[in-house]
Design goal:
Blueprint: H1 3-38, H2 46-62, H3 67-70, H4 73-90, H5 96-124, H6 130-138, H7 140-159, H8 163-182, H9 189-198, H10 202-205, H11 217-244, H12 252-279, H13 282-301, H14 307-335, H15 341-356, H16 359-368, H17 373-378, H18 381-391, H19 394-397, H20 400-417
């Protein structure tokens, strides 16, 4: 693949994350408007938000790892197309059950697609810039979230709440066509080597099983724990922020735009943190990222509603949660070899969803209990601080890959001499 095509591929891969960010925001932006349009209670949507996460986890664990054996292109293109069609269908829903079904299918398609997007962006990145390139590609998530929040009033005015799903759905379908003509097929080199080495073995057929055995279990657990805790915050906040902020005195349109600005801040935070991850101490970088998030939510918990101060704190906190989603897949590129990368990201997505599943129902319970906005937002400080604790183990987790690669090299040299 020449440089121009490589750059074009990375841009289109980033477009998938833009679509995902817009898609995540679409449901949260639609919910406070559905009560008037369809007579649906916002508190009844907790499991609708969770359905997307279940689909993401199942798709990431069961379908995405096939990219390590059969190549990324098919998984990415058809996953993107299926996501677009399911998102378009969401615009036709009239009950919470219909919303739940379409969000489940959307998540399943995204789960199959996204880990392969992350893995392929790592393979296309120059040496020494994997985390940065993966973060720039994943920067589409906060961009999509921000665009959705900022443009939501205009989209709703033109096409009602359904427009919030028609826009990302149509974009995903178009993107799948562009990706079909841009991406190259074939197996990744790591997968070919694995097939030559262990053709027909159970772990070759199900490469994700390797992550649950030594020596990969420890780095996988560290990565998955941080992803799970951060995903809890990401989906708690992005699911309910447009519903919570009006309780602090903001209008629906103002709340949507504050959510958009807060998510846009994640773009800068994520790229800066990823550059530090490539060039500086990885443990300290992650501790600073999650520590600042915890502090921002704590400040909100101890202050009365103030649009200016809260917007600033939400830029750090919500932006940091989005940045964590950008940075942590980049860490995976340093923790695992190429032939395990899709499996590692895919299975991490599944385990992370165990934490994320708690986010929307937790928010729904607090909404139903009429919890004040500052208390609702201060809850997010707890998982952010837990991420700081887990980040302490990153340095030890990073030792596993070079040790295993050195061992494999020594075994190869011994076999050559024999």
């Amino acid at each position: 693949m020449n440089q121009t095509r490589r750059l074009t591929a990375l841009v289109f891969l980033g477009g998938i994350f833009v679509m995902e960010g817009f898609d995540i925001a679409a449901m949260s932006l639609a919910v406070p408007r559905l009560e008037g349009a369809l007579g649906l209670d916002p508190a009844s949507f907790g499991w609708v938000f969770t359905a997307l996460l279940i689909g993401l986890g199942a798709g990431g664990a069961l379908i995405a790892p096939l990219g390590d054996r059969f190549g990324r292109r098919t998984l990415i293109v058809f996953g993107c197309l299926a996501t677009g069609l399911a998102t378009l269908a969401t615009a036709t829903a009239t009950s919470t059950v219909e919303f739940l079904v379409w969000r489940l299918l959307t998540g399943l398609a995204l789960g199959a697609c996204l880990p392969n997007v992350s893995a392929l962006s790592s393979e296309l990145a120059p040496a020494g810039m994997r985390a940065t390139i993966m973060a720039v590609v994943a920067a589409g998530i906060p961009i999509g979230l921000a665009v959705a929040g900022i443009l939501a009033p205009e989209i709703v005015a033109l096409a009602t709440w359904a427009g919030l799903f028609l826009v990302p759905g149509a974009f995903a379908v178009l993107l799948s066509v562009l990706l079909w003509f841009t991406l190259e097929g074939g197996l990744p080199s790591g997968a070919k080597k694995s097939e030559e080495k262990a053709e027909g073995s159970l772990t070759e057929k199900l490469p994700q099983l390797v992550l649950f055995s030594r020596p990969w279990l420890f780095p996988f657990a560290v990565l998955a724990a941080m992803l799970a805790l951060n995903a809890l915050n990401l989906y708690l906040l992005n699911s309910w922020l447009p519903t919570v902020l009006p309780g602090a005195g903001l209008t629906l349109d103002h709340a949507a735009r504050v959510a958009g600005v807060a998510n846009l801040a994640g773009l800068g935070i994520g790229i800066a943190a990823s550059m530090l991850l490539d060039r500086w101490n990885k443990r300290v970088t992650l501790m600073l990222l999650f520590g600042s998030m915890a502090a921002s939510f704590a400040v909100i918990g101890f202050t009365a509603p103030d649009p200016d101060l809260w917007t600033l704190m939400l830029m750090v906190g919500v932006g940091g949660a989005n940045a964590g989603g950008m940075v942590l897949p980049g860490l995976a590129a340093y923790l695992f070899p190429a032939h395990l990368l899709s499996s590692a990201v895919g299975m991490s997505v599944l385990v992370a969803r165990l934490g994320a599943f708690a986010g929307p129902p937790l928010g729904a319970a607090m909404i139903a209990a009429d919890v004040p906005a500052q208390t609702f937002l201060s809850v997010a400080a707890v998982p952010a601080f837990a991420c700081v604790v887990v980040a302490v183990l990153v340095t030890r987790a990073l030792l596993v890959r070079p040790r295993e690669e050195a061992k494999e090299e020594a075994e190869a040299d011994a076999a050559a001499l024999a």
